[in-house]
């Protein structure tokens, strides 16, 4: 069967990366530049643009955006870099289709509002592009996710979701520790997105962050579109920062899979309160009814018996925390108190130990090798690695280290949690996007220091 | 209707405590000693015995236990205190019934294995005792909980579950802060019981803690009975330390109630691994199949829109942590990192602040008044307050500050979580033990510095 065969091959190709010496990996297309395009050069796209411009192995062929202000920023960055100005597509919401019609790209990066990702991924695949790096969320509905999976299989292409937290330095050190068995057999994992986004969801239409309580047409940047999801949807709207690293820790889609999911949502107060506090009770937005509960708690169980807890908390005043907890039969790490405990190794029984010395000791080979290149890259350097992985996969004609099954599985948590909440927090079945191949697929993420 | 009338009266009586000056509260039976008995003077019962012996307002009339060793310990403590030796009941599992037949007690404390609590509470009520202080868990099945509620109503008595964490100093300071509105409207709360109990669940039949991997007949103290619950049951076996304080923060059964519950259970590895590690693979207990998942995660939603997350984690190596999080529209407190954040008050936006100064500033009046008396009392002094509350309620002929509805609601989380897990983590309805009176009942817990 075509589909299964493709997946098997992808699995083998990817698995083999682990055993090829690094020198060979870089041999193949070393003289050819990778031809890249970007759809969406807003705040997030500008980050990716910066990373592409830094690389000598990339030729930026085309960029697309509908917003003149951010396009100007992008052009300024490109000029400053001394690189050749790419073709620029703009003018209407379908300018990206004209860009794809040129059929000249090895790979594309999509960094647009969530609701555009699916169409742009499908359009890229249909145009013949074999490597698509999409910002997080590859669709809105569950059906969207299946469409992207099926199209990726049909076109024998790679769709990698650019989930940067998988590459956070402490997260990768812990991955190293997990793989070396320091925590024993994995039992329970936690993560999430706990980030006060009130000044992201609202601004004055001029500043990117805050200074007003506008959104939608009157907002700028993310406030223009992201806030609509808080008005209309109730679920874990942003699960991938938490679930991506967890999926690697417990080999989801690679010997393990998510089995079922249940979400609970609190009442929604934070966004309304923020509007009233900053804009007054008579501001028109004070009448908006936000559907997104302030705290959404999602439990997932796995066929191998682990439990996963995800938290989404973006409407209330609070310090940023992804809330990681990685717990096995021998001990656990938590990021909120920057501590761990490992039986027989932590000095004092029943007492937390500062995690720093452990994280330093088990620093992942990727970080050891590339930390110079991460300097100045977005989000503490971790953004470097997602782009690096995408570009190196293209250069080596290999499967991306995170693939469409990972992307669909992580991103589908949003519609699944919406469905669970809509049913009164009933537990819903988790789809198997791999069609049973999770039993055969092997872990491939960051097995070497290559990418 | 008799039942409703009783509850209303209990509610009113309890509520009135708050408005009576402290001096009057202590006036009534000040010259009469409170006649108390204890069923169960094991490790937990000895704690309560110590607290009763310290008090000049209590006459210890009778104690009961089936274990000669712990009875000897109890007698030694009593002799050392210089108080009169109580009547001692022992010899068989129904010695407590003979003790109750004497009908001479104002109040009784039950500190026996969980599976005995319900029968002993019912027996105490039937014997005419009006104040029953039961250690945590007032029953095993949901039906047990209803039986205790109905009997308490029938006999117009008080059943108080001796949940000591409600009186933990930081927990009470946070209650003070919640009531003064510092965290704003409550949104999401977390707590649990995360305590490596492997050396409690297993010992050598001589030592109370560890030194062997025996349990049941060959174990001593809690290992004699508590471990059986890990063999036979899968659920949140010990929810009350977490949920008690949370229930006070959000006025459960007093203007609010739990609506539904869902539990997820991880695989069970910790107890088996411990046996093999300490006792070898050939130890007979290495063949025991433990049903209790190592980490059980329970979500609850409330009719007022808050979400509650409870965690039960007692089989793995880990530091002790009840994992409290109290989050409202203005900020949150977490105990694992001993930090809080309050909008507009915490100095640096988006940054945690050490909670200590706040907890000191909002130290609860009860702790301010009674901290001398808590010196040397069990569990950092908090045990003093549960016994103090029970005795003062008796002296003042008032309802106990935590009543049978609180007890049933918190304790019922165990059978509800078992049911949810048994149904494949389906969400189950939370019973309303108050029969609708939660809409009318008012908060009464620790409103003054009296008890």
Q: Would you write up a description of this structure?
A:
2 copies of one chain form a homodimer. By secondary structure, the first copy, chain A, is an alpha/beta fold. Helices cover 37% and strands 17% of the residues of chain A. In chain A, a hairpin with a 4-residue loop joins strand 9 and strand 10 (307-313). In chain A, helix 3 (43-54) runs parallel beside helix 4, helix 6 packs parallel to helix 7 (142-154) and helix 7 (142-154) runs antiparallel to helix 16. Residues 1-28 of chain A have low confidence and may be disordered. Chains A and B meet through strand 8, strand 9, strand 10, strand 12 and strand 13 of A and strand 8, strand 9, strand 10, strand 12 and strand 13 of B.
């Amino acid at each position: 069967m075509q589909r299964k065969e493709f997946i098997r091959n992808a699995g083998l190709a990817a698995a083999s990366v682990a055993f090829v010496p690094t020198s060979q990996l870089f041999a193949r297309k070393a003289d050819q530049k990778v031809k890249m395009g970007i759809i969406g050069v807003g705040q997030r796209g500008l980050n990716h643009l910066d990373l592409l411009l830094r690389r000598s192995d990339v030729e930026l062929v085309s960029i697309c955006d509908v917003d003149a202000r951010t396009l100007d920023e992008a052009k300024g960055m490109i000029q400053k870099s001394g690189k050749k100005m790419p073709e620029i597509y703009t003018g209407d919401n379908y300018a990206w289709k004209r860009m794809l019609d040129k059929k000249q790209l090895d790979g594309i990066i999509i960094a647009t509002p969530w609701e555009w990702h699916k169409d742009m991924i499908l359009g890229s695949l249909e145009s013949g592009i074999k490597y698509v790096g999409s910002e997080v969320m590859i669709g809105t509905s569950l059906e969207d996710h299946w469409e992207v999976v099926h199209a990726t299989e049909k076109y024998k292409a790679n769709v990698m979701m650019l989930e940067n937290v998988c590459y956070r330095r402490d997260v990768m050190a812990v991955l190293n520790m997990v793989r070396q068995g320091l925590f024993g057999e994995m039992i329970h994992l936690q993560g999430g997105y706990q980030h006060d986004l009130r000044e992201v969801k609202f601004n004055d239409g001029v500043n990117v962050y805050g200074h007003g309580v506008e959104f939608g047409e009157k907002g700028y940047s993310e406030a223009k579109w992201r806030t609509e999801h808080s008005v209309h949807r109730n679920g874990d709207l942003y699960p991938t920062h938490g679930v991506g690293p967890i999926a690697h820790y417990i080999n989801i889609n690679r010997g393990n899979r998510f089995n079922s999911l249940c979400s609970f949502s609190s009442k929604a107060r934070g966004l309304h309160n923020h509007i009233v506090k900053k804009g007054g009770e008579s501001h028109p937005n004070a009448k908006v009814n936000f559907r997104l509960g302030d705290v959404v708690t999602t439990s997932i169980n796995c066929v191998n018996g682990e439990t996963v807890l995800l938290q989404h908390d973006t409407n209330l005043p609070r310090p940023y925390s992804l809330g990681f907890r990685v717990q096995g039969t021998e001990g656990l790490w938590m990021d909120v108190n920057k501590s761990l405990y490992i039986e027989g190794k932590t000095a004092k029984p029943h007492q937390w130990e500062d995690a720093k010395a452990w994280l330093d000791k088990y620093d992942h080979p990727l970080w050891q090798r590339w930390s110079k290149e991460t300097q100045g890259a977005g989000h503490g350097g971790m953004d470097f690695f997602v782009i690096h992985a995408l570009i190196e996969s293209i250069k080596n004609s290999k499967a991306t280290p995170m693939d469409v099954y990972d992307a669909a599985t992580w991103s589908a948590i949003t519609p699944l949690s919406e469905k669970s909440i809509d049913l009164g927090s009933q537990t819903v079945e988790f789809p198997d996007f791999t069609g049973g191949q999770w039993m055969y697929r092997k872990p491939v993420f960051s097995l070497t220091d290559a990418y």
